[in-house]
Write a structure and sequence with these properties.
There is one protein chain. The chain is α/β, with parallel strands linked by helices. The chain folds into 3 domains: 1-124, DNA polymerase, domain 1, CATH 1.10.150; 195-362, Beta Polymerase, domain 2 (2-Layer Sandwich); 372-607, TIM Barrel. Helix 1 runs antiparallel to helix 2 and helix 14 crosses helix 16. It starts with 21 loop residues before the first helix and ends with a helix. The structure holds zinc ion (2 copies).
Length: 608
């Protein structure tokens, strides 16, 4: 029997409200694909099934069909196999939730690239309603109501109606809902044209790999904010040196994942990729300008301006072509050469934000940033007991294959019902399995943990009698995101004051493009974290990166220890660690600031 793994991680179990946010789903699908490049069309088919479900729900013809389409969509999204292979082998109906009707539609779509059934459904509603459903919390039912009751057909009309207070007249709407709709529209607009690092970085690497394999290159690198590991980026910059620019341009503009060639020239070309629609710029540099060009295009702008000023003070001129005294080249071939000629040590790309790194470099006080190789384990991971996809054994094997010494399993607590939180009894059985695993495994160990909800009053979702027997406890805010700052801060601090709570996960609970951070007085929270020796998490999940770099830096300045965790809901997501490490480096964290650089014994002692 083939393995058809249904991925239940689309809602990461952390209370996401993006139930019908098609864009959010597609984004997550794209992120996940970063680790699974072979199943390109699965997400396309899943998106199609979700759209049919939404349109059917809007039509209100049948209550059950939308549910079946959504179920099928989720299964397809989580398939471990390529859906085209399944179709070819006549095995589509083995996918959970895919019956005869849906299987036929998938066949047709895969063969013809379109589906008349969907085209017909689309004609029933104005296309702008799809944008409206991308607002967190707005599903097909609300979209239908907006359309039929208020004749709203697109985001601009919705914004106007909310501003004029016309939404509150709708059944089930309040003033508060109008505010939320406006906030949602702003989040959407702010996110337009931006891509998560979780999408952009793998894509940048794919371009570099493709060029390196197929074109006559001497050097190649991505630059820009992707290289600085910024959590969201607009476009990708690729730099190369070559003796044959025309050949490189040809390979670049004909990559299999190019949707559109915007510009094609000897030293600069621009393409857009499919399916992301992301802009990728290629620049051909002279070898003697490689370092200065890499610096120039990596940025950020403020960092570069400050370096230029430093150069001017020395009677030098710095630009993308090199560092010059009059006509004479002083440096330019490597970044280190350029920094050295300015009497500076090499500054890591993640720090180049002009937030004090040049001053620190001048003073000889640059931190030695933590690296992925320093990480010995991951303490935030879910299994299929709650909302994860893989079993305890599969997660353990994947973590061990990554070279880790340990993996902490932190499944959800009972009040998080959407994530199938564990009852006390089930948790005890689970811990028993972990202990049993450890008796058999010598070089690799599991840690028994929990991601326990912090309830509204700051108490924990499990009693202390349960928490105290675990190796470590993560506390998380997954509910009541809209509490006022004073109450929210008190809530989180109360959790930290519980002596069993060791880590606060995704402390601000934000989700990029979907949910704003909760209202916390972070100065107070970090002071309390230092006092109670509670570790703050840098959550590596690409739409979280929480704490972000600046907050991680602030926490460190308060004397707080940090941990970099992936919040994995499947074995592939363990690879998100790199995004967390990048974020930590943006926060200037060193190995000694990050507790999961400790050995298995050290970390057990640390949390005791
Ligand atoms: Zn969580
Ligand atoms: Zn989690």
């Amino acid at each position: 029997m083939p393995t058809l793994i249904a991925d239940r991680s689309m809602d990461d179990g952390c209370g996401s409200a993006a139930k019908s946010a098609l864009a959010g789903r597609t984004t997550r699908a794209l992120i996940r694909r970063a680790g699974v490049p072979s199943t390109v069309r699965n997400d396309e088919v899943a998106a199609l099934l979700y759209e049919i479900a939404d349109l059917l729900e809007m039509s209100e013809e049948d209550r059950f069909r939308p549910i079946s389409y959504r179920r099928a969509a989720r299964s397809v999204e989580g398939l471990a196999e390529d859906i085209e292979d399944l179709a070819r082998q006549g095995r589509l109906r083995q996918i959970p939730g895919v019956g005869e009707a849906i299987s036929e539609k998938i066949q047709t779509y895969l063969k013809e690239g379109k589906l008349d059934y969907l085209e017909e459904l689309r004609k029933r509603f104005p296309p702008g309603l799809a944008d409206i459903m991308r607002i967190p919390g707005v599903g097909p039912k609300t979209a239908r109501q907006l359309y039929f009751d208020l004749k709203i057909t697109n985001l601009d009309e919705l914004r106007a109606a909310a501003e004029q207070g016309r939404l509150r007249k709708l059944k089930g709407f309040k003033e508060k809902s109008e505010e939320n709709v406006l906030k949602g529209i702003n989040l959407l607009k702010a996110g337009q044209g931006k891509f998560l690092l979780g999408i952009a970085l793998p894509l940048a690497e794919r371009v570099v790999a493709h060029l390196t394999a197929n074109a006559p290159l001497d050097q190649a690198s991505y630059a820009g904010s992707v290289r600085r590991m910024k959590e969201e980026v607009h476009d990708i910059d690729i730099l190369v040196t070559t003796t044959d620019p025309e050949a490189v341009t040809r390979v670049f503009t004909t990559m299999p994942f190019v949707r559109e060639v915007v510009e094609s020239g000897r030293t600069k070309s621009i393409v857009r990729t499919a399916p992301e629609g992301m802009q990728v710029d290629l620049r051909v540099l002279e070898p003697k300008s490689w370092g200065s060009g890499l610096m120039y295009f990596t940025g950020n702008k403020d960092h570069n301006i400050k370096l230029r000023t430093l150069a001017q003070k020395r009677g030098l001129k710095l630009n993308e072509y090199g560092l010059f005294r009059e006509e004479e080249t002083v440096a330019g071939a490597t970044e280190a050469d350029v920094y050295r000629a300015l009497d500076l040590p090499y500054i890591e790309p993640e720090m180049r934000e002009d937030t004090g790194e040049i001053e620190a470099a001048v003073a000889g006080k640059l931190p030695a940033l933590v690296t992925e190789a320093d990480i010995r384990g991951d303490l935030h991971a879910h299994t299929n007991l709650t909302d994860g996809v893989n079993t305890l054994e599969e997660m353990a094997a994947a973590a061990q294959a990554k070279g880790y010494a340990y993996l902490g399993l932190s499944d959800h607590s009972p009040s998080l019902r959407v994530a199938n939180g564990l009852s006390e009894d089930h948790l005890r059985i689970h811990v028993g399995h972990i202990r049993e695993f450890n008796r058999k495994s010598r070089d690799f160990k599991l840690l028994a943990g929990t991601e326990c909800d912090i309830l509204a009053d700051g108490t924990m979702d499990y009693p202390d009698s349960v928490l105290k027997d675990l190796d470590y406890v993560i506390g998380s805010v997954h509910t009541r995101f809209k509490m006022a700052q004073k109450e929210m801060t008190a809530r989180v601090i109360r959790a930290m004051e519980n002596e069993n709570v060791d880590i606060i996960a995704h402390p601000t609970a934000r989700k990029i493009g979907q949910r704003e951070p909760i209202a916390l007085d972070l100065e107070k929270v970090f002071s309390a974290a230092a006092d109670t020796r509670t570790v703050m998490e840098v959550n590596a999940y690409p739409d979280r990166t929480d704490l972000n770099g600046p907050y991680a830096k602030l926490a460190k300045e308060h004397g707080v220890s940090l941990i970099i965790d992936t919040d994995s809901h499947s074995v592939e997501q363990l690879d998100y660690m790199r995004f967390g490490v990048g974020t930590a480096r943006r926060g200037w964290l060193e190995k000694r600031d990050v507790v999961n650089t400790k050995s298995h014994e050290e970390i057990l002692t640390f949390f005791r």
